[in-house]
Amino acid sequence: MIRSRRWFFLASAFALTLCYFMIRNNSSSLELKQSLHVPTNESLKRFLGEKKTSVKEEKKETSLKEEKKETGLKEEVLIPENTEKIVVAPHGARLNLIIQYPVFNGSDGTHEWAVQRQKEVTFCLQQNLLSPQVERVHILNQAEDHHSYVKSLNLTMAGKLVFQTLGWRIKYKDAFLYASKNLIGKNGIIMNADCYVDKGFEHLDENILGKKTMYSLTRHGKPTADGLCSVPDMCGPNYRYIGSHDAWVFRLLAPLPDAVLNKIDYMPHLFGIEQVVMFYMRTSGGFKIKNPCKILHIVHYHCLKVPQLGDYQFYEGQRIDHKLGLTLNKKGSLVWAPFSAL
C-alpha cells in the first residue's frame, strides 16, 4: 500500500513538472516568434517609402544578379541625376571611352567662338558620362590644369572620369598606346571630343570584338527638334558613305605593335586620317574593320562654323592620306569601310 502511494506521488510530480515545462516552452516560443518577426518586403518598402516591386521586376533583378556572378561584373553603381537614378547598363558591352577634352582659350580675340565651342564639347562629355553603356571616360589632358577645369564643371556622374596628363595635343598613337597599356581585355572606344555615344550600344557584342574586329563608326547628327543645331547625319538614310569616321571601337587582347602605333602618329582632326588608321590596323594589326553605324550610333555636335577650320585640317597643305599615298584609288578596300552589320 505504501509502495502504491509512493508511485502515485512520483507520477503526479512528473506530470506537473511536464505540464509546467510545456506551458513555459509554448510561452517562450510565442515570445520568440514575436521578437523575431520580420516585416514582409512590401511592408518594409512601405516603411522606407520605396515603390512596390512587381513579380516581373523581382525576377529581372534576380536574373541580373545571377548574370553578374557568371560574368564577373561588378555591382552597378547608382548615381543620382536630379531626382532619378542612372545605372551602368547590365546588358551589352560596357565601354571605356578615351578622349581629350579641349579647353579653349578666348584671350586672343576669339572669346565668343571659344565660349560656344566649349559648350559643345562640355555637352558631349556630359552625354557620355550619362550613357549607361559607358563605364569610364579616360581623359588624356593636354595640360595639367585641364584636370581641375573639368572637375570644376561639376558634371553628373563625374565618378566615371579617369585623368591622365598627356602634355600635348592628342594623336591616334597616344590614344591607342594608352589603351594598350591600360585597357587590355576591356572594351575601348576612341572618339572625337565633339561626339557622344548614343543609342544601339546595348547590341554591342564583345565576343565579336575579341576576334580582332574593330568598328570604325560614321557619325550621326541630331535633328533640330532635339534642341541642338542641325548637323548632317552622315550615317542617315539620305547619305551615302564617303569615308568619314569619328570613333573606333575595339577590344585589345594584346598591346598594339609599334608597326601600327608609329604609323598613326597624327592628330584625329586631319582630313583622311581615318584611311591611314584603317590601312595600318588591317595590314600591320591584323584587324577586320567594319562600320555598323546604323546600329551603333555616335552623334556629332559641332554647330560653330570657323572659316579657317578647313586649312587646319590639312597636313602640309594636303590630305594626310594623299600625303602618304593611302588613297582609295591606290589602296582600294584597305582604306574603305562602308556601312555594315555588326
Report what the structure shows.
There is one protein chain. By secondary structure, the protein is α/β, with parallel strands linked by helices. Helix content is 38%, strand content 15%. The protein contains twelve helices and twelve strands. It has helices at residues 2-35, 41-48, 55-71, 111-130, 145-152, 172-182, 206-209, 258-261, 273-283, 309-312, 320-323, 328-331; strands at 79-81, 84-86, 95-99, 134-141, 161-165, 187-191, 195-197, 213-217, 220-221, 247-251, 288-290, 298-300. It has a seven-stranded mixed beta sheet with strand order 5-4-3-6-10-8-11, with helices on both faces. Strands 7-12-9 form a three-stranded mixed beta sheet. Strands 1-2 form a two-stranded antiparallel sheet. β3, α4 and β4 (134-141) form a beta-alpha-beta unit.
Brief write-up:
The chain is α/β, with parallel strands linked by helices and 342 residues long.
What are the salient characteristics of this protein?
342 residues; alpha/beta; 12 helices; globular
Alpha-beta content class: alpha/beta
Could you estimate the helical fraction of the residues in percent? 25-40%
User: Gyration radius, to the nearest Å?
Assistant: 31 Å
For the sheet with most strands, the description reads: 7 strands, mixed
Fold topology:
Layout (H helix, E strand, L loop, with lengths): L1 H34 L5 H8 L6 H17 L7 E3 L2 E3 L8 E5 L11 H20 L3 E8 L3 H8 L8 E5 L6 H11 L4 E5 L3 E3 L8 H4 L3 E5 L2 E2 L25 E5 L6 H4 L11 H11 L4 E3 L7 E3 L8 H4 L7 H4 L4 H4 L11
Parallel strand pairs: 3-4, 3-6, 4-5, 8-11, 9-12
Antiparallel strand pairs: 1-2, 6-10, 7-12, 8-10
